[in-house]
Amino acid sequence: MSKSRPQLAAVITEHRKYSHAQHIVDRFLYGYGWHGAHHHPEMDLVALYVDQHPKGDLSGERARDFPSMKVYPTIAEALTRGGSKLAVDGVVVVGEHGHYPKNEKGQTEYPRWRFFQEVVKVYKDSGRSVPMFNDKHLSWNWDWAKAMYDTSRQMGFAYQAGSSLPVTWRIPSVEMPLGSRIREALSIAYGGVDSYDFHALETIQCMVERRHGAETGVKWLQAYRGDKFWDALKEGVWSRRLMNAALCRSHTLTPARPGFNDIFPTDDDMRRIVKNPVAYHYEHLDGLKCTMLLMNGLVRDFNFAAEMEGSNKIFSTQMYLPMPDGRTTLASFFSPLVNNMEKMFLTGKAVYPIERTLLTTGLTAAGVESLYRNQTRFETPHLAVKYQPTTESTFERA
Amino acid sequence: MLNSNLTRRNFLKTGAAVTAALPLGAAHQALAAGAPKRVAIITTIFRLQSHGQHIGDRFIVGYPWAGEWHKPNTQVVAMYVDQHPDGDLSAERAKQFGFKVYPTIAETLRCGGSKLAVDAVLIIGEHGNYPRNEKGQIQYPRYEFFEQVAKVFEDDGRVVPVYNDKALSYSFEKASKMVATAHRMKFPMLGGSSLPVTWRLPDLELPLGCTIEDALMVGVGASDPMDFHALEALQCMVERRGRGETGVKSVQLVEGDAVWKAGQEGRWSKELLDAAFSRSDTPMGPGDTESRPEDLVADGWLPKLVANPAAYFIEYRDGTKVTMMMLNGALKDFNIAVRVKGMRGIQSTQFLLTPDPNVTYSACLAHGIEQMFETGVAPYPIERTLLVSGMLEACLTSKAQNHQELATPHLSVSYRPPAQSVYCKV
Predict the structure, then answer these.
(1) CA angle A203-A208-A209, nearest 5°?
(2) Of B290, B348, B363, the CB nearest to A58
(3) ipTM of the complex, rounded to two decimals
(4) Domains of chain B, first to last
């Protein structure tokens, strides 16, 4: 084993079939199909901290099959590999899945903040910090997320986060041209609040951040649910054309009428099919309005549409997330996510800005907050998050 | 030997031929912008998720295309349904959309009148209960449907575009007659399935005129209906080589241990198989049990996972050799890997078959069919479908004849692929 290969620690909530950590950790251990070969990352996952060991836990088995990787009882021990100083070159934090309390707002209190603090404590105690990846949003709690971001900036380590949505395949394979003037944007997805809403917000954000003037942050957010959703649809709170375009990108549109396999739903059909729809409608500081729709029952994929200035044609695509729910076995969208982590660990530089994740973290929490406050408009002065997108596209297309 | 240049000329002439044969008023009506094309659907069965239903409905209720719900400028005016099993939806559909289901193909094409009364025909002879022959092929009556359609064209002195779903026929002899008839009577004809036109992950098209050193397609099936899909996907890539397709010299289908043995002997490339697998979203074995992304090819999983592997060795008349592998139990999707002279590394991609029930890939196919209905020109040559129909039959003959290598002088099918890519990128 060459010394030049980065040595990694993973700090995870649980490792069982289909948990995020399983998808991520296993890619470092077994490699994965990538660009015409089975790719083995040029780095070694040598230390693992696992917070919970539910039924079906596979971490022990993995440690047995990969003697080069050791499971440690604490985060500090994992990072120091049982010694007294930081002994890895990169850290992967996956705080998704596992049994954690739900608060009164419906947020699952995944311990990403705790994990982060313990990792950073080792960095501080060792007088050295290394690149860190955080799966999905930074924290369910905005203040903590902001502290995580600030800490990473103060300490100056490469910090990359988020989910597969911005980096997975797109069908069709299109990128928002840098500097585009976007009139309005929207995503249609499925899943729950404080869960897949994050993915659907990232779907929008990785596209609209490329607009003219780059990202400026978000002013306010208003959530709609149930009847208020249908009222908002009728009132035209978001663009009907965008909604139709995004639905036409879906490959999983529930047939609205018996006897048909693929038919466009009417409003009445949608109302019948979608029992508890959710919308987050929000305005950026530069005036751009975006809407994220969760339409459970109607679709099982992530679709994006935007109206562009000076064009009659809607820009739309699907972010391809083929779940292992019978559609696939591997949840292959984790491959581009892991591949981008590898790039950061090899170069010491984040591939895409952490500010994107900071903003989508805040938007997710703001959505939860607006719902909690009886679907009232929630002002978000704290979300004045400014950043520049990457010039190069970072989604998978090769 | 069939020649694509002839075909192209014929296609170009078709519009004129149609116009000349039509009574003047009707011609004006049919060709006027905005007049919907009257479509007849000739199908074996019309049941939910049958090809007849999901392709036919694209022309009735429209389909998603490029981010819009696209309604083709067509009106389905007549339908013939050969079998009416439980779940038959044809009567219901006819009632709802105001067309008639007729008892014969001739009546369907004439809409109950005395002359051909449609502008386009969809022949969808897939699904339904039909006998299997000794080679295991389901004897779908596509040839018989086609002959009846052509007879109406002949009798009524007018031709319209015809789409034939999937293989032309289980028999190359019948398939050849179909193509010969289309050429003789000068009507545009399109065939085949969705594989060549669906999205590819990643977008990959081989450069026109390239030299193919080796190609390997991996999929699932090892049965008459599925093998056609995989062979067609392979063919739509390799037909872009050299100066165009010139046909197949020989085929051999081997099964069981002989497949692994052939790999050890270097008859198919492990590297290409690995590349093809790298594109799969559905590796089985550890992928299925634990979602573990192992290297199934290098780590020796395949013999454990695939009880009855099959390899189809195809040698073209220009010397190009390719392999198709059907590895049921090892994956569930369709992927290709190709080594192209002068290009770095291995070119590979997945032909994306999107999930049930929407099967949006058939929207990509419907779009190609619609183009032909609109323009009178098939977007890709029927000779591809003819050749693939013949390749499949020959492979199944090899299987039935003790897996022998068979010379295929009858498969001297020549054509040129479309210069423009025709798969879905929008």
Answers:
(1) 105
(2) B290
(3) 0.96
(4) 4-195+359-379 (3.40.50.720), 200-351 (no CATH)
